[in-house]
Write a structure and sequence with these properties.
- The protein is of the alpha/beta class.
- The chain is 36% helix and 22% strand.
- The protein has 13 helices and 14 strands.
- The protein has a 9-stranded mixed beta sheet.
- Strand 1, helix 2 and strand 2 form a beta-alpha-beta unit.
- The N and C termini lie far apart (43 Å).
- Bound molecules: nicotinamide-adenine-dinucleotide.
């Protein structure tokens, strides 16, 4: 192992300032594995707010930068510069920030959706391959051990040929005009096209469906027909989406994402039906996976037992019956990404298991999905090729 790979890894964060949602989740999830440290950041465009977060996290003030451009340049020039940058700002800024760090030769983790324009996502993909850097997109839910098992079952042929996928992601938090509430910045930027992009609901949560189905089944979308609704009066972007999908090879699917589904919390559910069996995974009960072979009763597979499979078990931190959840799913994406980065720094080759985190290519597919859904919806739900 090289000297560089033997020490703790270090990262810098862009976003995640006072009152922000997901930056804090990333920091806590990364800290679960104790071998990667936050050492630099620009936590807000507001200098005082950024410094406040830097102080709360005990960062050296000289590494709380004025903007991401300065941070990329200065960190790249340091002997002990960050190993990777974590981008947790609103969607519209992902492209420019990711490009700045990649151009400085720094590996990147970026939250979804990767960008607001498909061309920009593809450009990031080109830079990543030209510079041979690692790039993860935090599609959180594929980090659950039970989802690893779901993927293993489907891909082993246990379900036979896949016929139909039904996936939904309902929430209720935008059932009223939350963007008008004082201080609800998460609602306000998500419903603003200049910050969020062409879609709110599909970009924010529909992309999780697209990625989860692709990860578990390997099915490739051939064409889709979408309907977007903006139920809350005066809202500029969609808050409900219904999408029919044709996959290459003949399977079909139905996706529904909604932020106006009263009575639901964060209810991502995926069901895959094949000729020989079915699986069902529910994000709010993530320690379990339901598997039903056609000729036997349903089985509930639980995290922490041997039948979860080698890959799933490798990401379990406490035994069965001690529930794990959202933070661990995030931490598993980071554990895989930092494991790959350590090997890269040590000059070792990466195996498929090492690369089992969502990559820039998954991010590109997500932006393509949003783009095609918006195209279809704007054209009376016409079928569009993917
Ligand atoms: N993976 C997931 O499950 C998941 C969940 C929630 C949000 N997200 C994604 O994370 C991103 C952030 O969402 P959020 O809900 O945390 O938003 P948020 O509004 O709560 O936080 C955004 C933060 O970025 C800061 N910021 C904005 N522009 C900046 C810049 N140029 N430089 C430095 N800081 C800047 C803001 O000050 C704020 O602190 C979005 O792209 C969203 O889609 C992903």
């Amino acid at each position: 192992m090289s000297e560089k790979a033997k020490r703790p890894l270090s990262y810098g964060m862009i976003g995640g300032g006072p009152g922000a949602f997901i930056g804090d989740v990333h920091r806590r999830a990364i800290a679960l594995d104790l071998d990667t440290r936050l050492v630099a950041g620009v936590f807000s465009r507001d200098r005082e707010a950024s410094l406040q977060t830097g102080q709360e996290l005990f960062l050296d003030e000289s590494r709380v930068y004025r903007d991401y451009g300065e941070m990329a340049k200065e960190e790249a020039a340091r002997e002990d510069g960050i190993d990777f940058a974590v981008i947790v700002t609103p969607n519209v800024s992902h492209f420019a920030i990711a490009e700045a760090f990649l151009d400085a030769g720094i590996h990147v983790v970026c939250d979804k959706p990767l960008t607001t324009e498909l061309g920009d996502a593809e450009k990031l993909g080109s830079i990543v391959s030209e510079r041979d850097l690692l790039f993860a997109v935090t599609y959180t839910y594929t980090g659950y051990p039970a989802v690893k098992k779901a993927r293993e079952l489907v891909r082993s042929g246990a379900l036979g040929k896949i016929r139909f996928v039904n996936a939904e992601y309902p929430q209720e938090w935008l059932a009223t005009k939350a963007e008008n509430e004082e201080g609800n910045r998460q609602a306000s930027w998500r419903t603003d096209p200049s910050q969020s992009g062409k879609s709110n609901c599909v970009g924010d949560i529909g992309t999780h469906i697209e990625n989860m189905v692709s990860y578990v089944t390997g099915l490739e979308i051939a064409s889709l027909s979408a309907r977007l609704d903006s139920f809350v009066e005066g809202r500029k972007l969609d808050d409900n989406a219904t999408i029919m999908v044709n996959y290459a090879g003949g399977a079909t699917g139905l996706y529904w994402s909604s932020q106006v589904a009263i009575g639901t919390d964060n209810a991502l559910r995926i069901r895959v039906f094949g000729e020989k069996g079915a699986i069902e995974f529910f994000q709010e009960d993530p320690n379990y996976l339901k598997y039903t072979p056609i000729d036997a009763p349903a089985q509930i597979l639980s995290r922490g037992r041997d039948d979860l499979g080698e890959r799933g078990q490798s990401l379990v931190r406490v035994p069965a019956g001690h529930p794990e959840g959202y933070f661990e799913a995030f931490a598993n994406i980071y554990r895989t990404f930092t494991g790959a980065l350590r090997k890269r720094l040590a000059g070792e080759p990466l195996s498929d298991a090492d690369r089992d985190f969502p990559t820039v290519n998954d991010g590109i597919q997500g932006v393509r999905f949003v783009t095609r859904v918006v195209e279809s919806a704007a054209n009376k739900s016409a079928w569009v090729n993917f």
